[in-house]
Amino acid sequence: MTSVAPAATERPGRPARTDWKLTPRTGLSVMRAEVRKGLLSQLAHPVGHIIMLVISTVLYLGMQYVMGQGTLRRELIPETLVAISGYWFLHYGSLVMVADLVEEKRGGTYSQSHMSPAPPWVFMLGRLVTASLMGLMVAVVATLVPMLVTGVTIPLKAAALVPYALVVVNVLAFTFVLAAIAVSSPMVGALHSLFTSLVILLNGSMMPLALYPDWLAVVARFLPTTLGVEATTKVLFDGKSLGDIWSDGTLPWLLAYTFALVLFGGWLFSRNHRRAVRDGRLGQY
Questions:
Q1: Which of 73, 79, 229, 254 has CA atoms 20 to 30 A from the CA of 161?
Q2: Count of domains forming the chain
Q3: How far is CA 268 from CA 109, 152, 169, 176, 198, in A?
Q4: Is residue 59 part of a domain?
């Protein structure tokens, strides 16, 4: 007689979580994980960052020697240092953001993040924080080292924090625009090089905006950082107050420019991401 052993009791599997909701706490948790991942990835290869820091410092000092025809014009250095800090924050922050996104798109790992219930823009904000921290590191060093080498200082005024904070915001908005382009096109690298080259030429990093021809100054103000640098230098070096730069139109234009750039970046990312999902190109170009 054959006996049949009783079947082993099967443990029920844990049901999948379906109650996840986006709240400030859960959103910050997702962003924190994304920032940690990004920083670990960036800091795993410190040599590249060190080379960038050296290049950024030498490039600025070299430009000043060229503009001064073999000498440093110390009266122009403080204003150009304000501009170059904004440029390096823009250049390196956006470079980290774009390069990381393109690499993950080509490797197919970008699409995996969309398996999370968190909306895609939360991950993108986490990436933006990582890019900002790396850009800030380069910007601070690339500003402080020339100050020590040349012996010049930038006066500190609390009122200047307002326009410079708007510089930071429009840099982050422009970085988000480039990231939105990277979602749909691998040619974003060429656009990044083009726009950042225009910024370093025209935002006051080589010489103050007041020394440009009028028509070129108008063109320069359409680029990221230029309006903010102009407003900041007016407060720091021309003795103007926030009321003064409001009444002369600089601060209102800066606010409008920054707001428009933020809206454009959000709209472009939403559009390109929606198209990538529809066409099945989240993991490829």
A1: 73
A2: 1
A3: 22, 41, 17, 9, 22
A4: yes
In a domain, 14, yes or no: no
User: What is the SS3 assignment for the chain?
Assistant: CCCCCCCCCCCCCCCCCCCCCCCHHHHHHHHHHHHHHHHHHHHCCHHHHHHHHHHHHHHHHHHHHHHCCCCCCCCCHHHHHHHHHHHHHHHHHHHHHHHHHHHHHHHCCCHHHHHCCCCHHHHHHHHHHHHHHHHHHHHHHHHHHHHHHHCCCCCCCHHHHHHHHHHHHHHHHHHHHHHHHHHHCCCHHHHHHHHHHHHHHHCCCCCCHHHCCHHHHHHHCCCCCHHHHHHHHHHHHCCCCHHHHHHCCHHHHHHHHHHHHHHHHHHHHHHHHHHHHHHCCCCCC
Domain that holds residue 240: 25-278
In a domain, 251, yes or no: yes
Tens of pLDDT, residue by residue over 102-160, are 888 887 777 777 677 788 888 888 899 999 999 998 899 989 999 998 889 898 899 99
In this prediction the pTM is 0.85
